[in-house]
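Minutes, project check-in
Item: structure for the 699-residue chain
Input as provided by the requester:
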Amino acid sequence: MSIPFSWRYKRLLSMARRVRASIALRGWRGTIERISQDLARRPDVDESLSLLPLEAAFSPLSLPTSTVPRISVIIPVYGKIEYTLACLRSIATFEPSDPFEVIVVDDASPDNTATILAAVSGLRVINNEKNLGFVGSCNAGATAARGEYLIFLNNDTQVTPGWSEALLRCFERHPDAGIAGSQLVYPDGRLQEAGAWVFADASSWNIGRFTSRKNPALRYARTVDYVSGASLAIPRDLFESLGGFDTRFAPGYYEDTDLAFSARAAGRSVWYVPDSIVVHSEGISSAGLADTGMKRYQAINQTKFAEKWRDALRKQPAPGTPLTAADRAHHRGTVLVVDTVMPDASRDSGSLRLVGMLKLLLADGWHVVFAPDDGHAEDAAIRELGALGVEVLVRPWVSSVPSWLAANHRDLHAAILCRHTVAAQYESLVRRHAPGAKLIFDTVDLHFLREERAAERSGNSALARQAEASRRQELALIEKADTTFVVSEYERDMLSRLMPDARVALLSNIHDVYGRETGFAGRRDLLFIGGYGHPPNADAMHWMAQDILPALRQLVPDARIWVAGDVPDAERRALSDAGLDMLGRVPDLAPLMNSVLASIAPLRFGAGVKGKVNMAMSHGLPVIGTPVAVEGMHLIDGRDVLTAVTAADFANAYVRLEGDPAGWQRLSDSSLAHVARHFSAQAARSALREALGDEGPSG
């Protein structure tokens, strides 16, 4: 049978329109790349997604649901039972960690859907007497829901590990969040949607469509104009207050866009959540051309949407606006942060501080881009920073920081360069490409001060020469920077004497106050936190093994010193043979913090504020440390910490704490108050805002 000419003409006309729109948004090169991706031969499925087969015969299925759910998963269905069963099995395989229920709304399916669903244990089924369409079925499911949060899923989806947890974390991280949507992926592994933009004529564009889902540029959380109803989470009370999905968009299309605009009009934000990954076989339930079947409602409802949101659409980008410009409209500007490697808060205190800074920048509305100088990032690290909202620049997606600066300098508000080894490489490049951007040098700690102390202690002339070279380089960078961050008042005061004209700001460690979970009773032993790769830590470990532990065991024979941190195998064995209890890296320090008597910080050289001291104090754990370990932190011996100079001092301080429950309690209380007073996020936020020339989002 031949295809009518009119049908072919309409299809060609539709394709031409899409190509013109793509050229306007992406340019010729981007359009050709997209067409090539769409036409390229691809595998049917991406095996890394572990999709469940559709052709499997029905077998008993049970969902471990709750009668008092926190989450209500709502799935509207119209036939296609094989897809519905695969969706339900994926939920059973990757079940939410929160109590949940699953509600399937059978929209008068023409097949055996009702019979088969009746055999699924733990499932709530609503059978529509007549076909209500997607909008009516979703609203019916929401009316029956009992959960605090609603998650709408298409029946042609399959969920992946952590999908629901990531959606709910979005609401925890962003109190103003009203809607959260998943990263939607095609079964062949390509990205389907990373949220969407809406233009002034009510047309829209799915972000990242047909590109790689692994690209970090599409893997960071962000506010968007709307997210697809194929996987959409919303608090139930908000959904009800907005009146649910607007029935004027029945049976479907634009109802999710309309819900997002309603949420935004109510002062709530709409978020794309990249670490909630949902596979979507798009079009299974609405296949066809734009002027036939369900697809015809896309154009019809676009007109309705344009009429309803006429005033709001005037604020949206004009049709043809480049995608990069549409993206810029959602943030205040870009802040580039460069450090030697990807931060890992479980590895070192510098990483913990840096992640705290990134969170503060994001909270103030900046687009934050992080670049590891070594150009490398594990997938898990990209995912963790992306979940916060940080874009990561890493090969092969970005060839180098200089190439990124050349392409993105117009939007660059500031560059924060961490450590003198990094700042020395990129300071001139930032000035050349973005002369109007703020250049901020974050010392992390003054390297030359730490090296000078190490050289003095060891008498090593080569180390002394290295310290002098670092001194010249760091002071030169401080002179060139618009603002320099230091972590201690000691360092700020020293620089004010050396360079009175430099703008030096205190941005110390950033810590949450975790609090004390257990009291004095039952506590024993000491805890050292730190990796061997940091020279002051390596020296401290050897001092503990050679002198401090033997002195302690003369007074308390069964006392132990636990060491939490990365240590090379050879050194680990030697230190363990000497009596230290080597734990390696510990992802969660809280159990240790709540069982040991005190934290030990026997640092004989170093610089800056010591994260190990702050971390212990944030848990209410008393600290026994050297004067070097506690300098520049406003700490008073006997009130906030116990200071020790010799091995015998450490042993005596332990015995003193062990025999004085009231004194231990006073130190614990003072520790918590001290961190809240001097190392809060608020103090760091003020320093960042001043350096950026900014009073905050509403300032």
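Outcome recorded: The CA atoms of residues 143 and 240 lie 9 Å apart.
No further action items on this chain.
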